[in-house]
């Protein structure tokens, strides 16, 4: 029996999951770490604490699995994307806290670069936003004397979290990042799949501080000097969390898409060998590189999905636990004309209106908590409807089905609404830990635990499918009511 360890380094916790070759979960370990908020809108993580929680999670997962570290055949990494670390090659020590993807400290830098947006968009597929890594690096170079000094001495190493973990796993012998993570930095040209000199100049990032860009599935190096694992285990798969989820959903063909319904929601559509530029406010990104072949994706995210259910729970005190929303919403046949736009922190793709705020409209004397709960679920599904429509417009591809995962995908009513609004089949897999699964797939493929994509397709299993049940007129009614409400949000 072969065993693959997936390290899932997320925004609030690190996890380690051990899978066997039949995709049974053998052991899990998890540890939360500190969120550091030095100023309003700033978010940091301590890289040493991240590393400690990774080692801790691996130890726990091994204990739970009853396995010895030497039995692990391969390690895959998936990670919170865009979060950026600077460290020194001599000492391996971080020179500053990791600047997290959510951190808004580079808002002014981005405003100053707005005139360059067409260039960044064309080369990187991204928009100039504090979300991405490049301006975080520029900020460190300008504001952290130790980072500046290391840059002058040639000992500076920059990396996203995948790269930082790979460096630590190999005791500093490998400084590399996979294409999916590199495509979130604003520094890599997604057409040439190489760091772009012009963009590095604009952001004043010395190319020597950047990692080597590698594929998503190959042996990058071997463990060395770790507490939780013996030396010599290959690290052989890396992808950013959303790309790993698409891979874990076996979304290998162009036109396949997945949506992860967590706090927010993330939709990724595989567009195959083509980097599809977006005219509708989506991002063009790299899904993965296997062998020599790059697969591209379109991405659209909503800041709020399951978080709207949390708001019903905590803000309005409608129920005690999030899953109870389903029974409450199902206790009425429709929302009684109520529409809810969950723009609690602004609207993301395809509207990009940071100033928009949530809205509940169509309230009458007969409106109850149940109608509002139902309208919230409809609002979550409608946001995905709009993103999918934008993806279909950009790519010219008509979606066949949507694969789903994440905490809120357990909600059958929400999934039925999604099928109804999209007029597409919604497919929920048995294994909804798709992020870890994707990292494990990538790592296992490189060392022969699984032979090829076909074998992975066969190991992936459906839990339940949801078929559209409403008429075209009913669908049109939902869409019109939603559009009216969004225009007022
Ligand atoms: P994250 O990884 O972003 O923390 P998870 O994938 O763990 O998110 O999902 C948690 C989110 O899903 C929470 O916002 C919660 O409100 C929501 N959620 C969990 N279960 C349900 C459910 N049955 N119906 C609707 N929302 C749910």
List the helices and strands and how they pair.
Blueprint: E1 3-9, E2 13-20, E3 25-32, E4 44-45, H1 47-65, E5 74-79, E6 84-88, E7 98-99, H2 107-112, H3 117-124, H4 133-143, H5 145-153, E8 156-160, H6 161-169, E9 176-178, H7 179-182, E10 188-189, E11 194-195, H8 197-202, E12 212-214, E13 217-222, E14 234-240, H9 241-248, E15 257-261, E16 265-272, E17 283-290, E18 293-302, H10 306-314, H11 325-330, E19 339-341, E20 359-361, H12 369-395, E21 401-405, H13 412-422, E22 425-429, H14 434-447, H15 453-459, E23 462-466, H16 472-488
Parallel strand pairs: 1-5, 5-14, 9-12, 15-21, 21-22
Antiparallel strand pairs: 1-2, 2-3, 4-7, 6-8, 10-11, 13-14, 15-16, 16-18, 17-18, 19-20, 22-23
The site of adenosine-5'-diphosphate (ADP) has 16 residues, from helix 10 and helix 11.
Describe this structure as you would to a colleague:
It is built from 16 helices and 23 strands. It is globular and about 70 Å long. The protein has a domain at 3-242: Nucleotidyltransferase, domain 5. It has helices at 47-65, 107-112, 117-124, 133-143, 145-153, 161-169, 179-182, 197-202, 241-248, 306-314, 325-330, 369-395, 412-422, 434-447, 453-459, 472-488, and strands at residues 3-9, 13-20, 25-32, 44-45, 74-79, 84-88, 98-99, 156-160, 176-178, 188-189, 194-195, 212-214, 217-222, 234-240, 257-261, 265-272, 283-290, 293-302, 339-341, 359-361, 401-405, 425-429, 462-466. α10 (306-314) runs antiparallel to α12 (369-395). The longest helix is centred in the last third of the chain and has 27 residues, at 369-395. A hairpin with a 3-residue loop joins β1 and β2. Strands 17-18-16-15-21-22-23 form a 7-stranded mixed beta sheet, sandwiched between helices. Strands 3-2-1-5-14-13 form a 6-stranded mixed beta sheet, with helices on both faces. Strands 4-7 form a two-stranded antiparallel ribbon. The protein is 35% helix and 24% strand. By secondary structure, the chain is an alpha+beta fold. Adenosine-5'-diphosphate (ADP) binds next to α10 and α11.
């Amino acid at each position: 029996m072969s065993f693959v360890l997936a390290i899932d380094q997320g925004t609030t916790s690190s996890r380690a999951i051990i899978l066997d070759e039949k995709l049974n979960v053998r052991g899990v370990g998890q540890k939360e770490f500190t969120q550091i908020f030095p100023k309003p809108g700033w978010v940091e993580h301590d890289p040493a604490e991240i590393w400690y929680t990774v080692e801790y999670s691996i130890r726990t997962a091994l204990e739970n699995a009853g396995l010895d570290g030497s039995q692990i055949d391969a390690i895959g990494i998936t990670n919170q994307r865009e979060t950026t670390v600077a460290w020194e090659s001599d000492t391996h020590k971080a020179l500053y806290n990791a600047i997290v993807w959510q951190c808004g400290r580079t808002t002014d830098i981005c405003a100053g670069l707005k005139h360059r947006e067409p260039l960044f968009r064309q080369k990187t597929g991204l928009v100039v936003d504090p979300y991405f890594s490049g301006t975080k690096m520029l900020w460190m170079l300008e504001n952290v004397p130790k980072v500046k000094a290391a840059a002058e001495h040639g000992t500076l190493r920059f990396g996203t979290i995948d790269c930082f973990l790979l460096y630590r796993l190999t005791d500093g012998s490998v400084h590399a990042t996979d294409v999916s993570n590199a495509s979130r930095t604003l520094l890599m040209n997604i057409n040439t799949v190489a760091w772009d000199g012009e963009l590095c100049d604009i952001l004043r990032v010395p190319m020597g501080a950047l990692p080597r860009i590698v594929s998503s599935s190959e042996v990058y190096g071997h463990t060395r000097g770790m507490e939780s694992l013996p030396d010599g285990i290959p690290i052989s798969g890396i992808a950013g969390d959303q790309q790993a989820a698409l891979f874990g959903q076996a979304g290998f063909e162009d036109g396949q898409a997945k949506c992860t319904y967590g706090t927010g929601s993330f939709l990724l559509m595989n567009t195959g060998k083509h980097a599809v530029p977006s005219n509708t406010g989506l991002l063009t990104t790299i899904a993965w590189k296997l062998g020599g072949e790059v697969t591209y994706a379109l991405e659209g995210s909503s800041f709020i999905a399951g978080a709207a259910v949390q708001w019903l729970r905590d803000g309005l005190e409608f129920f005690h636990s999030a899953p109870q929303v389903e029974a409450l919403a199902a206790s009425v046949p429709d929302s009684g004309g109520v529409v809810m736009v969950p723009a609690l922190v602004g609207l993301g793709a395809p509207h990009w209106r940071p100033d928009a705020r949530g809205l509940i409209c169509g309230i009458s004397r007969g409106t109850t908590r149940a109608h509002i709960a139902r309208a919230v679920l409809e609002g979550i599904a409608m946001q995905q409807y709009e993103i999918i429509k934008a993806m279909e417009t950009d790519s010219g591809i008509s979606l066949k089905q949507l694969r789903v995962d994440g905490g809120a995908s357990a909600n059958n009513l929400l999934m039925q609404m999604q099928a109804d609004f999209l007029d597409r089949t919604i497919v929920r897999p048995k294994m909804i830990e798709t992020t870890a699964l994707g990292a494990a797939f990538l790592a296992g493929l490189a060392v022969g635990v699984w032979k090829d994509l076909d074998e992975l397709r066969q190991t992936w299993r459906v839990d339940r499918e949801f078929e559209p049940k409403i008429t075209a007129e009913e669908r049109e009614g939902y869409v019109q009511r939603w559009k009216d409400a969004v225009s007022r949000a």
